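Sanity check record (used in CI):
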Amino acid sequence: MRAVIVNAAGAGFAVEDIDLADPMPNEIVVEVRASGLCHSDLSIAEQGMGFPMPALLGHEVAGEVVEVGASVTSTKVGDRVVICMVAGCGACRECRAARPYRCQRTANLERNPSQMPRISRNGEALTQFMGVGGFAERILVHENLAIPLSDAVPYDVACLLGCGVVTGAGAAINTAGIRPGDTVAVLGCGGVGLNTIQGAALAGASRIIAVDLQPAKLDLAKKFGATDVVNAGDGDAVEAVRELTGGGVDFAFEVIGMQPTAEQAVRMLAVGGSALLIGVQKPGNRLDLDLFGEIVLPQRRIIGVAMGSTNPHLDIPMFAELYLQGRFNLDDLVSDRITLGEIDRSYQLLAGGAVARAVVTKF
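Expected output for S-(Hydroxymethyl)glutathione dehydrogenase / alcohol dehydrogenase:
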């Protein structure tokens, strides 16, 4: 089976032949029809981020179930599914409280070391990123990761529901709990940032300010619901946001993963505002803030966001239905459709701001 492997941090993406094991009782095999290029995968490919190498990355997947284990009851061969790496065990306190994104027992969904690895190369086990490993022709996953997909939603946009959509829009709707009339700033207008913007618009935010360095991304942000745009290269972005809002926003979302922009998100806040940190930060990053003057006295909050606080079995069907109703934009998120062998090139374009999201559709 063809797959794209990262053999070492910084070594890039290489198309290779690997082996896929047979499904165990609660596992399914999915033929991948679309696999999105998320920036998180690039961060791991370049920096390792603590994940063992060699690794099979990719986690935004939509496809068709082609094989099921003996105990699988949630899906069947022929079903269309979206794969989401938020796959709770279903039995712990957090899962039973409908917070699977906080599940601490996800290891129960993996194979143990005494069992044959799901994916291997010449007998050597490969790291399956987040239990998915979606840059491949097929994936072998626990059934809990699979969410039913309507026949009416195309695979190339559906794959984004599994991460970029639920992370961005979920951060606005679920984590922040934006209410009509709230004001918002979004720092970083890539795929996740654009979904944060349209999630804020869906929730009724009265002012949504998009902040980025790329004019093309700012133009795209307007299409997704931004009421104002700030080019951070033109001056002090914090002062620009505070001037536009007369003192700061209720919610600022950092969707880049850098210390300076995280600090800017805090400083853009009005009294009582919340900064939500979504971007994948490099290990060791620290915030340099005046805790009394910038946090305690103005009663601000800093909130870490994991996967948009999503319950995927509820949120993914909801966003799919909103898309079919014309109320949620998925089509304009996909700016390039590529082959497995073009992942390196597409990530270069993504870094340069030329695309919102590239999706592998040819395997």
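The chain has a mean pLDDT of 96. If this sentence no longer matches the regenerated tokens, the check is flagged for review.
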